[in-house]
Structures are given as C-alpha cells and as structure tokens.
Amino acid sequence: MAGAKDWVEGARPRTFPNAIAPVVAGTGAAAWLGDAVWWKALLALVVSVALIVGVNYANDYSDGIRGTDDDRVGPMRLVGSGAAPAAAVKKAAFAAFALAAVAGVVLALTSAWWLIIVGAVCIAGAWFYTGGSKPYGYAGFGEVAVFVFFGLVAVLGTQFVQAGRIDWVGVVSAIAVGSYSSAVLVANNLRDIPSDSVTGKTTLAVRLGDSRTRTTHLALIAVPTIATLVLVAATPWALLGLLVIPLAVRANAPVRSGAQGMALIPALAQTGMAMVVWSVATTAGLIAGSV
C-alpha cells in the first residue's frame, strides 16, 4: 500500500508553482491598485493549491482506471502503479476540491457572491480534464484550460478579491502566468507523446507532433518577456521581470536540444520555477512602483 511519501508524490508537488505563481502575480496586481489584502491572498493560495492537488489526484484516478498510466515515463502514479486503490485516490481528489470550495466560499462571501459560480466551474474543469466519458484533456484542450484556470481566472480572481476590481496590469500579468503554466503542460505532454499516442490520449502535443510542440513551448515562455515590456507602461520597476530570462532559457534547453522521455522532466520543473520567479519579480516591481 502507498505510504505518506507516495501520496505526497502523487499530489505532484512539482506542479505547485502553477498554483503559487498566479496568486503572487494577482496580489502584485492588487498592490498596484493599492488594495492588497494579505489574508485574502492567503485564502486564494489555499484555493489554488487545493485545486491543483485535487486535479492531480483526479488525473491519477481517471488515467489510472483507463489504463493510460500503465506504461508511463514520468513520476509514479498511485492508481496506475497499483500502489493505492482507485477509490481512495478519488476520495483524496474530492477532499482537496472540498477544501478549495470552503476557502473559495469564504472569499466569495467577503467579495462577490458570483465567485461561487466561478469556483464551481473551476472544480468541474479540474474533474473533467481527464474524468467523465469525454475528457477534454484527451481532445487537446488541456493547455487552453490551464491558461484559463491557472492564468486568467487565478490571477484576476486573486486581484479582484483583494482590490474589488481588475485592470489592464492584472490582465497582462494573467496572460504571462497563463502562458508559463501552459508551457509546463506542453513540456509534460511532449514527454508523453509516445505513450499517449498508444493509449489514445490525443493531447495538443500529440496533435502538433514533436517538432511543433517544441516550438510551442518556446513561444509560450517568450510571452512573459513581452508582458514585462508592456508593464513598463505602468512602472519602469516592471523591468525586474526580465530577471527571469536566464531561467526561461534554461527551462527551454532540454526542449530545444531534442531531449526525450525522462530527460524532459527538468524542463517541467525549470519552467515552473521561471514562472514563480517572474511572478515574484514582477510583484516586487509593481509594489515598488505603487509606493
């Protein structure tokens, strides 16, 4: 049976930057408006991390019962490896979603009631990514969903619950974070093209093929640099976001070098790290520019 270490690995902590970065960026956008509220930022972080843990366990469950993970190259999966019963992993996913829902309701009741609807859509999107009879992750829409949920919704939602409004700085920041988050999934799906092709999981990477998927990763990690230059219109301090360029180049290195399989795993971690660094640096710049 799976031990605590296996359950932690099954939650896929390497994907946590996808949850942390948008909250940091959204808080920076709220601070730019002069309305950062730190306890709401912390609650937004609980929502975001709980959602990503939930979606990771949900993917583990759904892919495991479909047999998609029977011959997987990446990190261990609880169901696919037989380390944990499928029912237990499903319960873990729903428990994480419940935690996200509770924190989200608190934020909604102190901000705007309709955020409850947004939260429900996010949870549904997390489940049906690989769950249900027609999972959209199997049809090539995973990257779009990640861009929307862990980019636009997460960043702008974080800004809104603190400042009570959103602005163009938040939108630009959301596009940048969404692009990085999608790039993480692109690198993941590039690694899994051989196994996904066999199991019928038609991800965007499978649709595009190896070469064009590598180009897509490069394009996505270039977007935040463009976003940084746009944010200079708000404050020159936004140029701090350019500090991420060496990390972004390093993150793309395994992709552009033609690496395959396990050799692509560093691209996932380093793309996620670049996303966090960009968010922290940009937030610092926006706070400095708002003083």
TrEMBL record:
It is found in: Cell membrane; Membrane. Pfam families: UbiA. Keywords: Cell membrane, Membrane, Menaquinone biosynthesis, Transferase, Transmembrane, Transmembrane helix. The chain crosses the membrane at residues 37-58, 97-130, 136-156, 168-187, 218-249, 261-288. It is a multi-pass membrane protein. It catalyses: an all-trans-polyprenyl diphosphate + 1,4-dihydroxy-2-naphthoate + H(+) = a 2-demethylmenaquinol + CO2 + diphosphate. Pathway: Quinol/quinone metabolism; menaquinone biosynthesis; menaquinol from 1,4-dihydroxy-2-naphthoate: step 1/2. GO terms for molecular function: 1,4-dihydroxy-2-naphthoate polyprenyltransferase activity. Its EC number is 2.5.1.74. CDD domains: PT_UbiA_UBIAD1 (cd13962). It comes from the Bacteria. Its main location: membrane. Signal peptide: none annotated. Gene3D superfamilies: UbiA prenyltransferase. InterPro entries: MenA, UbiA_prenyltransferase, UbiA_sf, UBIAD1. Conversion of 1,4-dihydroxy-2-naphthoate (DHNA) to demethylmenaquinone (DMK). Belongs to the MenA family. Type 1 subfamily. This is 1,4-dihydroxy-2-naphthoate octaprenyltransferase. It comes from Williamsia deligens.
